[in-house]
Write a structure and sequence with these properties.
Largest sheet: 12 strands, parallel
Strand order of the largest sheet: 5-6-8-19-22-25-28-31-34-37-40-43
Radius of gyration: 22 Å
Distance between the termini: 7 Å
Strand content: 35-45%
Shape: globular
Number of strands: 43
Amino acid sequence: MKLGLGLGFSSSAHTLLSEIFTLPLGFDWSPSFAITKQSGHYKTDLDVPSFAPTGQAYYVDPVSGSDGNVGTEIAPFKSVRTAMNASNAVEIYLKAGAVFLRDTWTGYGAYNPPRDMSFKTYGGTDRCYLTTAQHALSWSLQTGTTYRVSRTNTKNVIDRADTHSDGAAKLLAYKASIEEVDLNPGSWWTNGTLVYVHTFDSRVPDSDIMVMVDVPNLVVTGDKDMYFENIEFWGGDYPLGYNVSNGTKHCVLNNCAVRYGAVADGLTIRDVDRLSLIKSDFTDNFEDGVNIRTNGSTIVKTLEVDCYYARNGLNDADNINNGSTYHTGCLGIRLNCHSEDNKGPLLADSDVGTQSINLNCTATNSAHALSTDVGNAGFFVQNSAEMWLKDCSASGSYYDRSVNSAGVIYDLGGFSGDGLDNGSVTLL
């Protein structure tokens, strides 16, 4: 690995402004963008917004809009599906801060955008929320401070009024009976047809209580460019999937979040040619936060910048869930990413040909149930994958860096940790 110095100096203070990072020999992707380091932080010169498809624009507001409108900013549609179904729709603008429930999002099943599309917000800087939460719920008192509502096919319940330290809304804890729910604030149970809830503060369930239905959220099939900005995907079997074969297109998440996948990963990527995840969060999913692999001949090439992964692996059956993971020969670069409290290796790559470069990434507190397992690790590779680390750190896990079933981790310098190393860690 070579770390070259940029030519950026202040003429008055003669202060080094940036360093140019040169990709290590043996890494099989030569991206079009440059990587520089400034004040300990890595960045690229990628013009992320330029990747958004452009064309006919439609606007959506679930509160003041109507599907009988024409879809302009002053006369927006009410539901996202109406905007996407317009024959010439390319740019979809969603009201900033709005919460789209099933009736104003995709309806009653996963939706596949019909062509290249971009999704952004308007009317403010807050993210909007595309959810599988049921609309028009009518709660009744069950007993004490437990309330019930009629709803089948429920997988999770979320309380937007109760948040983690990172600001993400908390999932209510699932219990085994009405009696247990009544005894435990912040819990829920279902008998299959009724949902029982006891809020964390024992209040009557309100619009912040979101009953998440077990259906997919957004599933992109077919080779399409997709751009998302300021969007949060909540719930469903998995909140956001991109499933194609031999793809040639680009998927971008810019300042987005993918949370509360009920039966699988948060972001599931198959065969898109390029994936860019910028300043995005992946939290509280059943399995991995981000899972990337190939179905056919396309090797997915991923850039992740300033991303955050936490509390993924709600599946209690195993300990192999990661914040971000590449598989089956895919290639990736992670810059300034942070992974914590995931139930398994925090940043993990697997399989022959899979490679990742990780610069200024941190991995904190694997939630692996076995305290000395090889997967109780910050950085992890297996099955001949290769991982390069520069200016990274790990803490709170049994292993800082762990290699299982062949593979290698290359230390390019600047690493710090408080645990052990397992397997082949090579200092370059």
